């Protein structure tokens, strides 16, 4: 709970207390603005502007959906993992993603929306997930490229979210980032083993990096001057850095890592710029980004269909669990309860 | 899992039998990833699969190189029970398979853990994992059996369909000494009858062995779906002979 003096004057308003009149709304708004300005956390029972709440719901839901849709391209390789050690690591990683989905749906629930509601919106195509998961995992090396590049980009995006103004989201991100950092290292290590392996394995690794590099750069979203939600999110301290800043940070991290891996990045314009103190990189094909976002990526249809199918196939199980819980709701022994 | 007995003291056939059970069931559970009926079950099924894979790695390493054994053996050289290789089917089949196996594994590892044989260190850890797997399967058997008409019918079909694979669990495993197999079987039946009864399900009355004689999986005779499972599991490893991953 934020404790700015300004908010105390507003009498600890909660999200569920409608302000008594227009004067109160102004006081609540001032208290909220003061808390954000003072870098305090907004908590679920604090008053918050409707648009702030809606922005958070949209962003957290999209993040949660990305975790569960993101399980598919990697789960695609669990049954074919080439060693038992790799199989254990991959299973644990996909399991972590399910866990991240759980924390994030819970964070969204603190804003008054249920997991079921959000899943229905995902299944109806009314909420998005990260477009990166609309690309296919064609070889084993793609598991490594996802870890190194996709999880690496996700961390770059998410570390600043640990300081996001909304408490439950910020706290969920602390745990998510720790696990993502492990995922990124396993991806790097997987690619390193391939790169130093047989010529066929090296070629597999290079091919995967060639295919995943540009989509990874697109994960930071459109350029700052075309980003629809950025300015307001920065003002609310939901977002702390611009898309282009984060993208540049990611490129600067990846270039030396690619060199250590013995792999090249597929961009002839990539070079160190002494003056800027950053790597310059080539132009991103934004038409591809918008196209995939609109639903025309290689796997949009497949990912969403599989998600809907899993949900429909599981309906009888969820109904049974609910029916069983209802039958035994006054069973004081709890012996047959979840 | 802290001590691994010297290779010459380990009964290889037993390490393979127990290791293959864990390896194959872990693989089957891994097939659910991304398709579980509810998000919590994505986490739970993966947890069970990871526990089993950990057990498999210890056991196969007692018998040789874990990856050579997992990826380079032919179907007829695997020693797992036919029960664990059965495809997941619907969620009820997955739960019935897990209930039958986890109760067996829990009772067996409990006995192995209290002995001083080569499997005692592994069993000491595995018995705790199996207790959780068993509880998970029991809770779902109760929910599905005593849930809706549909879930009851599905769960009854599943426990009936897998019943004929349960007899071979109690054939003595070569190299495992000091286990009273008939007593293990009586204990297993007692638990299963209790759980199915509480779940309002009928204990199947069919034979507990199939057309194959009991113990067929332990002797390398498997069912048709197993070959396809292995083809998928082994394909990548076999495509790059000698490579390290």
UniProtKB/TrEMBL annotation, chain B:
Could you identify this protein by its name? 1,2-phenylacetyl-CoA epoxidase subunit PaaC
Question: Which top class of enzyme applies to this chain?
Answer: oxidoreductase
Q: In the record, what lineage is assigned to the organism producing the protein? A: Bacteria, Bacillati, Actinomycetota, Actinomycetes, Kitasatosporales
Q: Which E.C. number(s) belong to this protein?
A: 1.14.13.149
| UniProtKB keywords | Oxidoreductase
The organism's place on the tree of life at top rank: Bacteria
Q: Which InterPro entries match?
A: Aromatic_CoA_ox/epox, Ferritin-like, Ferritin-like_SF, PaaA_PaaC, PaaC
Q: Where are the transmembrane segments?
A: none
Q: Name one GO molecular function term.
A: phenylacetyl-CoA 1,2-epoxidase activity
List the source organism.
Streptomyces cellulosae
